[in-house]
Amino acid sequence: MAIVWYSVQSWLGSEPVSLMLRSIFGKDLPSRIPNHFGSENATTYTFMCFFIFWVVEFPFLLIQPHKVRHLFTVKAVLVPFASFGFLIWSVRKAHGKISLGSLTDFHPTGTAFSWAFLRSLMGCMANFSTMVINSPDFARFSKTKHSALWSQLVCIPFMFSVTCLIGILVTAAGYEMYGVNYWSPVQVLEQFLVTSYTKGTRAGVFLISFVFAIAQLGTNISANSLSCGTDMTAVLPKYINIRRGSIFCACLALCICPWNLMATSSKFTMALSAYAIFLSSIAGVVCGDYFVVRRGYIKLIHIYSNRKGSFYMYGNRYGINWRALVGYLCGVAPNLPGFIGDVGAPKITVSEGAMRVYYLSYWVGYFISFSVYITLCYFFPVPGQPVKNILKDKGWYQRWANVENFEEDWKESLKQDDLTGDEINVYEYSRGKTFF
């Protein structure tokens, strides 16, 4: 999913690149470049912009994760000025008027409106489904166990709401000016350039597009390339590090053909909802395991051992927690019929009830996998479980441990048959680095 998102975000980044090129070389630049691409959803010019963005962001993949934070600092400073400047510019060009309502010919009421609202809400949650899973990739760099709490608690609901509001108002102003419902605000910026190719407009469009490209670059690295890198490091730590995993993500992203996913908003939201059914079940299992079953207790040294007796080998030679696998599959299963109906599988009729379950895909997958996993752990406890009865016994077993000499302690523990080691929570750190 990180690879798919990396590709999609790079395609979105090609739009501001295109506007910058057109601001410099002429608004008719796309028509001056011959099209030999052979796809109805992309041209040679649009692919060129996509590849330019891909090449520019590639060097940032070679930077260590804790050093790339300076890019986010630049992004945090510039983006608010560009976003609010774009909003003010749009509303002023619309003479202070914005269009209200659905801005389409579809005006749902009653039950149809309720389900349309829920589907939109699920689309928003699906957008966050990858970040819910890979947030520990960044939270583990926190200096304290509460550092990541307040930033996420404030920024995600508030700042994302502001971002969405700016996009809605710009689109509404664009509809007032051009009578077209542009589902991407960048397309409204493109109309500024097309309808008024003056020096001031060209400068304004170039600067806003430049900042939007930086914002897209930061988002792609933080949410996608690093996520893929850390996951691949966990799979093959002997051969792959975060940098190599990020490079692999970028290379494979060229094969995704994101222009087909982004051809229409309906295709994009369908793709979002589709893979959210798999990620929601993962989130349900992870949260059930950490907050209910283990109560914050993690024995770090056992994580780095595949010897018999390690808590995380789960009593078998392959280290498979079958309870998690069953919980995951149970969370995915109820959404599969609706998923088949949504993608338009031929000769298959899906009931309205199954489709409505799918419309609630994230909640359904999350709570079913969460409940099934906890139930299985109740009857079949996992190794290292700190309480006997996970439904009745109380207690929270998160502990702070000094890991200054972690490597020495870990090697020493491997010599012991009982695999003893310090108890440590996943948020702990040493010298600004983490050992997970």
UniProtKB/TrEMBL annotation:
It comes from the Eukaryota. Keywords: Membrane, Transmembrane, Transmembrane helix. The chain crosses the membrane at residues 44-63, 72-92, 112-133, 153-175, 203-223, 244-262, 274-293, 320-340, 360-380. GO terms for molecular function: nucleobase transmembrane transporter activity. This is Uracil permease. It is a multi-pass membrane protein. It comes from Maudiozyma exigua (Yeast). Belongs to the purine-cytosine permease (2.A.39) family. InterPro entries: NCS1 (IPR012681), Pur-cyt_permease (IPR001248), Uracil/uridine/allantoin_perm (IPR045225). GO terms for cellular component: plasma membrane. It is found in: Membrane. The keyword Cytoplasm does not apply. Pfam families: Transp_cyt_pur (PF02133).
